[in-house]
Specification:
With 328 residues, the chain is α/β, with parallel strands linked by helices. The protein is built from 13 helices and five strands. It has a five-stranded parallel sheet with strand order 2-1-3-4-5, with helices on both faces. The chain is elongated.
Length: 328
Amino acid sequence: METSGDTSQGGKAPRSSLSTREKIIFGIVFALIIVALAEVVCRFVETMRRAQIADYVAQWETQWKGDFWVLKGEEANADGCRDREHSVEAEPETWRIACLGDSVTMGWGVPGEATYPSILERELARSGSPAEVFNVSMVGWSTRQEAVAYERILRKYQVDDVILGVCLNDIPEMQNNIVPSDVTHPVARLAKWSALVRVAVGAETREIRNVEELFKKEGTAHVERGWELVAEEIRRLRQMLAKDGVRLLVVAFPFRFQVEPAAPDPSPQQRLAAFCREEGIPFIDMLETLRPLGGAAFVDHDHLSIRGNQAVVRALLASSHLQPPDRP
């Protein structure tokens, strides 16, 4: 009795319906589908994780589609800043001071005339010092954008002094938005576009989710790297200023929880102060200035109220670090 498919009696084994070339193509297509699905899943997970990052930590690509942006609209001057217009040439004997910073310097939550750069200009005029104060700042800027802003916006004005406002969220912003140096260049390029690659290289483990981690996770690799990136940008800015004969003053602004009861030790400010001492950069910590005002110094988690801005100006005017230049 013959059995269907029996090859012992000279029957032939069935051939595959796919050629070797077709099998390779099928394998490639299948692999691409798996990679695409993995990318979709990783993007979804990344979106959920990014939603856990504090809203005061800027995400450059997501929010501004790049690493430098300026203000647009009615409040912006020709340079894209929340400031009045300035002529390129200074009036004779005028002391030019530029305030570089983020939304704290920009004056989020207060009128334009109540920002500390505006108050500083008025107070200097009242004291008889012919001064012109620039407010070059923007929501979400960190030390990276502030150094770029000096190059692109401020340099042409030939200012005498630059006051660099450093806020605690600068550290997580620098860390989270810049691919760490231990990722090779080709991978870094892929990581910019692929969530799957970012997961593979552990990019999310390098993110700082909020300012509190600067206190609670001090010494960890991702926090240390954030500080290193900030230090690099301050050094770069200082080099440009030194080349132009411009003086630099670094000012540290605290978060509101630092002036409230049971506040943690101000280790980030202490670290920044130590860095500035080592680098020979004048430094003012506004924590002690704002502490007596408590929560009244702020309008939210870190933006200054009118009283807070006024206190900052008093501290600047009382400091030996901010003095009119010696004119020849």
